[in-house]
């Protein structure tokens, strides 16, 4: 199975790529210009392109079985970034998947996506644009999953002591999750049939034990 990962040089994206490789997938990385990868990913199939270049995007997705979208606007004085990346950029990737016959998409979004009254919206209404990106995917007719993580951390130690708290949309608000555990959730969603067609919020805590995503989703009715 070939998994293509967009935003693969980002702090979440490269971890998703590492987890995909560890799970035995063939991995293709979609990168922006001047991206820097960890040394263990430099031999992966790499495609450097702009998301607005439909031909290059179609070529990058050709023969892929799944796409994991880990692109996201970076903090910048340019407040149009969230609209271009988190909404229009997602739509462009979704449309390319439809043209190339890629039916499975995992989108990394954010807790509180779509909420107007949130401090993150001071950065170009980022949560509003993220929700619009989710909606483009939901209406695509493809086999989609939206993963909404809480606040992200770089921590890598003692992750085996943490369980994932799963919920449906608009339940959790202010908890956190390490990027490594988020990356593992994205790969587990690929393997979990029950994740298809769902928005899944994920945070982590030492207060609960780790259980398979399939088992957790069976308890969520939304």
Q: In total, how many domains does the architecture comprise?
A: 1
Strand segment tally: 10
* Low-pLDDT runs: none
Compute the average pLDDT.
95
Give the proportion of residues in helices: 25-40%
The separation of the N and C termini measures 30 Å
- CATH classification, class level: Alpha Beta
Query: What kind of assembly state do the chains in view correspond to?
Result: single chain
Total count of helical runs of at least 4 residues? 6
The secondary-structure element order is EHEEHEHEHEEEEHEH
Verbal overview:
It is a single chain. This protein is an alpha/beta fold. The strands form two sheets. Strands 3-2-1-4-5-6-10-8 form an eight-stranded mixed beta sheet, with helices on both faces. A two-stranded parallel ribbon has the order 7-9. Helix content is 31%, strand content 23%. Strand 5 (104-108), helix 4 and strand 6 form a beta-alpha-beta unit. The chain has a single domain (2-149, 182-189), classed as Rossmann fold (3-Layer(aba) Sandwich), CATH 3.40.50.720. Helix 1 crosses helix 5, helix 2 crosses helix 3 (81-100) and helix 3 (81-100) packs parallel to helix 4 (126-138).
């Amino acid at each position: 199975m070939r998994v293509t990962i967009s935003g693969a040089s980002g702090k979440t994206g490269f971890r998703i790529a590492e987890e995909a490789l560890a799970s035995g997938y063939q991995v293709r990385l979609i990168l922006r210009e001047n991206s820097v990868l960890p040394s263990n990913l430099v031999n992966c199939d790499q495609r450097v392109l702009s998301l607005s270049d439909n031909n290059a995007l179609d070529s990058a997705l050709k023969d892929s079985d799944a796409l994991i979208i880990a692109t996201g606007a970076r903090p910048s004085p340019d407040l149009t970034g969230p609209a271009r990346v988190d909404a229009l950029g997602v739509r462009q990737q979704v449309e390319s998947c439809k043209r190339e016959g890629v039916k499975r998409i995992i989108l990394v979004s954010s807790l509180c996506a779509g909420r107007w009254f949130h401090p993150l919206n001071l950065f170009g209404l980022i949560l509003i644009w993220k929700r619009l990106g989710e909606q483009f995917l939901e209406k695509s007719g493809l086999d989609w999953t939206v993963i909404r993580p809480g606040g992200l951390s770089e921590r890598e130690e003692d992750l085996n002591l943490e369980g994932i708290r799963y919920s449906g949309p608009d339940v959790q608000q202010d908890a956190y999750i390490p990027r490594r555990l988020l990356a593992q959730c994205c790969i587990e969603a690929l393997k979990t049939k029950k994740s298809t067609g769902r928005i899944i919020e994920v945070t982590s805590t030492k207060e609960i034990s780790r259980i398979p995503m399939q088992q957790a989703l069976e308890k969520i009715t939304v």
